[in-house]
Amino acid sequence: MGKDDNLMTLARRVSLIKPSPTLSLEARAKAMKKEGVDVISFSAGEPDFDTPEGIKNAAIEAIKDGFTKYTPSSGIIELRNAVTGKLAKNHGLRYKPEDILISCGAKHSLYNIAMALFEEGDEVIIPSPYWVTYPEQILLSGAMPVIAETTQEDSFLIKPEVIEGVITKKTKGLILNTPSNPVGAAYDRTQLERIAEIAVRHKIYVISDETYEDIVYDGFKQTSIASLDKDIFKLTIVVNGVSKSFAMTGWRIGYAAGPGDIIEAMGNIQSQSTSNPASISQKAAVEALTGSYEDFINMMVGRFNRRRHYIVKRLGEIPGVSCFMPKGSFYVFPNISGILGRKFGNVVLDSSVKFAEYLLNEAKVAVVPGEPFGAPGYVRLSYATSMENIEKGIDRIEAAMRELQ
Ligand code: PMP
Ligand code: GLU
């Protein structure tokens, strides 16, 4: 059978989605490096620090103790207790262990939510710029993503009237990501209260992706929308994990906390799809959430903060570029629309995709174009890379800009 014949036999949902562009771009940059090309990559969506020793040791102990078998599909009770303890300590949230589902990364938690809650005929509101995976998972569920735009002038925060404007009878959910990927926007308590009021009035579920909650700057205080009052608590599913806070992206542990019946439904789906996340990773995550890793997080955030100031300043000095100062996460999302339309030889750089390709091919710098984040005219740079790489990479971008007519 030829390739086209194969496509004919695939399920329709396959044609609805694209592979993760963030993962594939990082893979392309890594492959170029392996071939000996001196690429500076700003595409990594993961901390450039190693997992702390104590967490690694917990995993080694788990292996030595023979903790190498299936666990309860929804996760071991110690880990679900560790998650309830963390949510109580950080946000005053009161969950029972059965309100928690441990999954293979926050991405998997989000997928389980989409499968348990959404279907054809439903609409789910996603503020843009958004993390690339949200609309794709909603499409996989059969529901329709409804994009609600934010602007740089509003610090990329969704205005209550914009949410109200896109709500229909079909609206079933809203995905809120704070601090956000790719922008680093973050909502304070008052802003969350306005969103919660709308969600409660229209009975819309809020999926609160708090993956970057520990990576915040300038003393920003992270609030979980679930903690505002008991009405929004009943409508919120909190999503988080250990990937970013503890530099554990490869361990694949994420979690969801929410109303028991939704979590149970998600757990049933998980029990018939992946079963439990790796037993060893779960033990490591217990150590991460119950051990003393504040110093590690402070060190990491301190380093990110220095890089954040440096990269925003340097990008802002490039003619045609303006850059929002992120409040959290480890990405910058400069507006490059002032450069679009310029030419390299005969090629007109008329989109962020073309601009990113130009940087990769000519300057050997990998950035992620804004289009898959719902933001043409922007590119994403991760500063989860060394200061030395950042300096070198921005020098190269500046030089590449000088080549354009
Ligand atoms: N949410 C956001 C906003 C992210 O950036 C990521 C990182 N890919 C995730 C969820 C998923 O992370 P993980 O699956 O590693 O927990
Ligand atoms: N969150 C990261 C990113 O946005 C990881 C890659 C992914 O899972 O898409 O780059």
Task: Explain what the structure shows.
The protein is globular. The protein contains 15 helices and 14 strands. Helix 5 (77-91) runs parallel beside helix 12 (279-290) and helix 6 packs parallel to helix 7 (133-141). It folds into 2 domains: 3-50 and 295-402, Aspartate Aminotransferase, domain 1 (Alpha-Beta Complex), CATH 3.90.1150; 67-290, Type I PLP-dependent aspartate aminotransferase-like (Major domain) (Aspartate Aminotransferase, domain 2, 3-Layer(aba) Sandwich), CATH 3.40.640.10. The chain starts with a helix and ends with a helix. The chain has helices at residues 3-9, 12-16, 21-34, 53-64, 77-91, 106-117, 133-141, 160-166, 189-202, 230-235, 260-271, 279-290, 294-316, 352-363, 387-402, and strands at 40-41, 100-103, 123-128, 144-149, 171-177, 205-209, 236-241, 254-257, 331-332, 343-344, 347-348, 365-366, 368-369, 379-382. The protein has a 7-stranded mixed beta sheet, with helices on both faces. A 3-stranded antiparallel beta sheet has the order 9-14-13. Strand 3 (123-128), helix 7 (133-141) and strand 4 (144-149) form a beta-alpha-beta unit. The protein is an alpha/beta fold. 47% of the residues are buried. The chain binds 4'-deoxy-4'-aminopyridoxal-5'-phosphate and glutamic acid (GLU). Glutamic acid binds next to helix 3.
Question: Would you identify the CATH architecture of the largest domain?
Answer: 3-Layer(aba) Sandwich
What is the strand content? 5-15%
CATH superfamily (homologous) name of the largest domain: Type I PLP-dependent aspartate aminotransferase-like (Major domain)
Structural class: alpha/beta
Q: Report how far the terminal alpha carbons are from each other.
A: 47 Å
Q: What is the C-level CATH assignment of the largest domain?
A: Alpha Beta
E-strand count: 14
The biggest beta sheet, please? 7 strands, mixed
Order of helices and strands: HHHEHHEHEHEHEHEHEEHHHEEEHEEEH
Which strand order spans the largest sheet, edge to edge or round the barrel?
Answer: 2-8-7-6-5-3-4
